[in-house]
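Input record (Table S2, row 544):
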Amino acid sequence: MPISTITSSPFNDQKPGTSGLRKKVKHFQQAHYLENFVQSIFSSIGDFKGKTLILGGDGRFYNQDAIQVILRMASANGFAKVIVGQHGIFSTPAASVVIRKKKAFGGIILSASHNPGGADEDFGIKYNTGNGGPAPEKITDAIYEKTLEITEYDTLDSQTDIDLSQLASHDLEGMTVQVIDSVTDYAQLMNELFDFEAIKTMISEGFTLCFDAMHAVTGPYAVEILEKQLGAIPGSVINGISKEDFGGGHPDPNLVHAKHLANLMFSDESPDFGAASDGDGDRNMIVGNNIFVTPSDSLAILTANAHLVASYKGNITGVARSMPTSQAADQVARKMGLDSYETPTGWKFFGNLMDADKVTLCGEESFGTGSNHIREKDGLWAVLFWLNILAVRNESVNDIVQKHWLEFGRNYYSRHDYEGIETESANAVITGLREKVKSLTGTQLSSLTVSYSDDFSYTDPVDNSVSDHQGIRIGFSNGSRIIFRLSGTGTSGATLRIYYESYETETENMNEDTQDALKELIIISLQLSKLEALTGRTEATVIT
Ligand code: G16
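Output record (1,6-di-O-phosphono-alpha-D-glucopyranose complex):
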């Protein structure tokens, strides 16, 4: 076979974060850089000779180029077949669906998620295993070790590109490349999970919705499912044309970046339901007329109402949330007699729990919600889950949320991000806190008593693996919490995230302004962390 072994040199980049390798496009375009990482993946994942790989990405700048490089390397390395989404597109959840459905060895997903795209922006690559989920730390560590010692990679002599624009099969030096529709398998699974007839009826009777695809990957998925299959009026999906640079926007579905949708939902023209998804389609934001549903509340509400969705009724084994996610889902689990788990940040930590059937639903404060139907979080899935509940309950989003708080209490919640801090200063904040939390338990801070404080360590209940240093937790006796952690997904400097949560059960206090409700915690956090002294920052960059 006409294969070349190219000499390359190790790259001494910092370790990839929670979701694979994310860097500026220009960084990826350095000679041999992408190839080194891909070879490091192929050298770390076991024997795939004769097996199938799934390949696709969120369509951002460099997606198509990277796919051609990976196809040639997959062939040279011995894969029998690669299934690629048309035009090189798969949303992250759709890639997970296809990996599982085709029983593939694994998949490579090209995305930097919610980070901006374009020639000067971000690109990313990650490997998912045969269960459809992000590779566990054992594999990502092995990949990283390989990148430090790699000296050569295998690729084809020929530089011919495969045509990804048509649904067809091709031979690439003995390896089959099959180009499939990016949406079909995903849409079919959604149809099996949710009551499309009930949602269709609700929409035909006048229910209105707006889905903001943010010019990212979910455009074609949302148009097919929401408009074509469920009958939402054309135009219900906005910013539905996928673009390489996401139209210059920041495809992160929150009230700051999906401003247009947020304004619409709080105006007189508001439709009944609003939602948005991110760059690669795994995140979601849910908004009702005059109400924003926090991702933490969304997880709790889906759990409490799962019995209304036929495919989940009686099938919820447990619920998991990442550590900084509010404890709203725990309140539901307690009342419903379900097991609940607190995992470190990163979807990969849910994989073992789902594979062992310990949890069915999981969610994160970072706008990620999902279930065991795949092993990634899933933006449109969350939207359809909500629509199914709305169709059954025939109540507004606002009513559903208010009734939920009355039954389970309200967890006020907010995240303050300090972006682009110098890495050294950010580390100093965390190191200082790490020392402090050793002796905080039992002390009084302002009017609150600390009931526990630690640097979160997680022991996986399935394989007993231990993940240390997952963020600073300070819990108070009234159920409030302050969490500090450094982002694992940024590409320039460090981002410090501070998460605040308080728990309210008094009806008359349930509709306060969130920042007001959390004021005492915010003041405590700034004093405790010496944030201003160590970083010079007086204000958060983004508050969600
Ligand atoms: C990724 C992971 C999520 C995690 C998030 C945290 O999200 O997949 O599980 O919650 O990172 O981000 P950070 O470390 O910046 O707080 P995504 O959507 O970027 O893949």
